Amino acid sequence: MKKITYITVAALALSTSGWAQQGDVNYDESKVPAYTLPALLVTESGQQVTTAQQWEQQRRPEILELFTSQMYGRTPDDSGITVSYEVLTENTAALGGKATSRQVKLIFSNGEKTLEALLLMYLPNHVAGKVPLFVGYNFKGNHSTTPDTTILYSKNFALVREPGHPDWERGCQTNRWAYDDIIGRGYGLATMCYHDIFPDRPGLKRHSIVSLFPGYGVGKKAPDEWQAIGAWAWGSSRMLDYLATDPRVDMERIAIMGHSRQGKAALWAGAQDTRFKIVISNNSGAGGAALSRRRYGETIAIVSGIKPAWFCAAFDQYHEREADMPFDQHQLIALMAPRPVYVASAEGDRWADPKGEYLSAYHAGPAYALYGLKGLPSATPPPLHQPIKNHVGYHIRAGKHDVTRYDWQAFLDFADVHFGKPGALQ
């Protein structure tokens, strides 16, 4: 078998989507190495897992620890961090009167240093009773999700975008936020700029929530010290904490959706916090839904070379040594069981390895079978635009690395199946 040559970090040119899509990256299925996946339902002592109880008490904790110590890092004790809330605006006639919007400042403090993040949420006005809700980060600021001139800019956005940059334009990513569809179907949505939690630019770690925790910047970095993905996952849970204070929000019907690097973080958040009742990964690629052992498109060496601040230092040992990993991403997806999980791919997003994303979701199925729930039906991916809505769901659509209205409609359909449609209309 020919050795696959990977593009060097220095040669990577990041596209507007944030990913390199050029150079000598493997896009040839014939060059995918033969691989054997780590066993999902065999404990470290060699015991076969045959019941949901064994999964929850033995195997699931083992797998969670592997991803904690070897990939995403250990989420530290946050008992010394206080989080307070300040409602900044509320508009009962948002989105043309269809929704009530609210902007909330989350204030994080360790007693000496304080950081803040802005949460933007919408709740439908036409739904009686508690509202199911989607949670997800945006990439370009809350202002980018809507042309509404009352939406506030985050402090941290000025750290990552210079004055005059096109990303300051209001509504510059409305295509990724199908607010009318979400609200029209009776769901709410809460979003936050991911830079508020951990600015995704080198040299800005001191502006991240990580800098509030004991030990930050002191001594040599531990191999399992958490980094950006761990911080983003932690921040997702803090959004949930605020939502739990709103009597209109149905905390038993919360879905988290993440795209690209935030698809990675959404899976990690869902693995750690079972309050997320549906977990959705969109185009998350390596370190997210895609199987690392396939070495197709984005690989461990490439992604952690581009963004070394995303994963813990222990992950570096597996650069071009994927076969030595004691885990792979099908096990991450399985950590959601028995909660529904959905993986979405795009045909033109070869960088994220759509087939590897599908196979990872497929091989998570045995964990769901322990509960009598359906995973994906076959190792063969479905055709374009034919979503599967079992407890493990999947679709692949035409197009590129993005979040589209088609994706949102599929996510809403999946939520309708597993949450039940939102309550009676007023």
TrEMBL record:
<dbReference type="Pfam" id="PF22244">
    <property type="entry name" value="GCE_fung"/>
</dbReference>
<keyword id="KW-0378">Hydrolase</keyword>
<feature type="domain" description="4-O-methyl-glucuronoyl methylesterase-like">
    <location>
        <begin position="228"/>
        <end position="367"/>
    </location>
</feature>
<dbReference type="InterPro" id="IPR029058">
    <property type="entry name" value="AB_hydrolase_fold"/>
</dbReference>
<dbReference type="GO" id="GO:0016787">
    <property type="term" value="F:hydrolase activity"/>
</dbReference>
<keyword id="KW-0732">Signal</keyword>
<keyword id="KW-0719">Serine esterase</keyword>
<dbReference type="InterPro" id="IPR054579">
    <property type="entry name" value="GCE-like_dom"/>
</dbReference>
<protein>
    <submittedName>
        <fullName>Alpha/beta hydrolase family protein</fullName>
        <ecNumber>3.4.-.-</ecNumber>
    </submittedName>
</protein>
<feature type="signal peptide">
    <location>
        <begin position="1"/>
        <end position="20"/>
    </location>
</feature>
